[in-house]
Amino acid sequence: MSTDAAPRPIHIAPSVLPADFSKLGDECRALEDAGVDRIQWDVMDGQFVPNLTFGPDVIAACRSAVTVPFEAHLMVNTPEVLLEKYVDAGCELLIIHAESTGHLHRCLGQVADAGARAAVALNPSSPISLIEHVLDLVEMVLVMTVNPGFGGQAYIATMEPKITELRALIVERGIDVDIEVDGGIGPNTIAAATAAGANVLVAGSALYRDPAGLAHAVTDLRNRAEAAQAPGRAA
After folding, report:
1. 197: Cβ–Cβ under 8 A, 6 or more apart, which residues?
2. In which element (H, E) is residue 135 found?
3. Which of the four pLDDT bands, split at 50, 70 and 90, describes residue 65?
4. 161 burial class (0-12, 13-18, 19+ CB within 10 angstroms)?
């Protein structure tokens, strides 16, 4: 369970990966209408992960469709090469994988220089020690609960102790940093991830599979996460 005495606000940040790519603007509007806090763009280059998705032009084409913030999860090698393009496309938050660049500290500084907020991501096999020395540069850490590359994968529950360890480190240092989780998040997993210490929840397939629709799915996930934060709840 989170060691933070004051639970951080819950944010639901859906991935558009399961959406209909032929009408992404409409899909973003539907998510905004459903009450999401922000929208995540899973940017994949076919090298860092075995899949190809969105470039900055696609994201830019959707920016005017909604007012909710955009975040770009850059699952790419050498993110420093194009990161400014994603800021120009309208992404307020850029998530850089610790494993994707040889100069993580400098890359996170580039995000700030480009006018965006920086976050750092860890693959399931990557230890927290990889990012301990850049926590002062980020406002969020993404703990991957699947191996990145494809949507619809099963949640890796063994990441929960990692989330708890990271939350304890953040509390110990007294820094203002969110923890995001991404991968397999749905009605059956969101409570455990939140109780471990996460407060920004990325959901994709679970939202689009809900037979009652997106608004119901978003509300249900938010309620489950907030209940998991309640004082005295066992992790």
Report:
1. 1, 2, 3, 4, 163, 164, 166, 167, 168, 179
2. none
3. very high
4. exposed
21 confidence band (pLDDT: 50, 70, 90): very high
Q: Does the annotation count 182 as an active-site position?
A: yes
pLDDT at 3 > cutoff 80 = no
Determine which one of 45, 178, 182, 210 is catalytic: 182
Q: Is 42 a catalytic residue?
A: yes
Q: Give DSSP secondary structure letters for 110-125.
A: HHHHTTSEEEEEE-TT
Q: Helices 24-33 and 214-228: crossing angle, nearest 10°?
A: 50
Residue 151 has pLDDT above 90, yes or no: no
Pairing of strands 200-202, 178-182: parallel
Give CA–CA dist 157/88, Å, rounded: 36
* pLDDT score recorded for residue 231: 65
Neighbours of 200 (CB within 10 A): 26
How many residues are given for the chain?
Answer: 235
Q: What domains are there in the chain, each with its CATH number?
A: 11-228 (3.20.20.70)
Q: What is the pLDDT of residue 233?
A: 47
Point out the catalytic residue in the list 42, 45, 178, 210.
42
